[in-house]
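Bench notes, afternoon.
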Amino acid sequence: MPVLLLERCNQIMNETDIRKYAGLMRELGLTGLEVTEGDRVMRLERAVPTVAKEVVTLDAASASTVTPDYADTDYISVTSPLVGVFYAAPAENAEPYVAIGDRVKKGQTLCIVEAMKLMNEITAEEDGVISEICVTNDQVVEFGTELFRMKR
């Protein structure tokens, strides 16, 4: 879940403010909130309830046959190497780096993932054609989230 950073100047933090920020966190689904007042920094965090996941055990023979439909050798999956916010273009009103059907070369920038105010360019590791864009602009992505699917 995302963390929202807020700056407030020249005001004293009180219980009413803390409750207001806690309500904002709940409303926006945030797990953390950092408020800066002058030289003081206050961070609110809340635990996210975990959902039990079903565990499936496969033997080695069946595991090799269970693959997603797209995971054949003709496709390349481009995944996020970090947690952050996906941006399809270098600026808000700029053209996206790539679109479906674009031919890309190894090393070409595909998108940006912003993490802690650092813009990390995600580049193609192989030549290919963009066949699917799996996330939307401004979407928070996790490590390993599939960003693009490319045809070799």
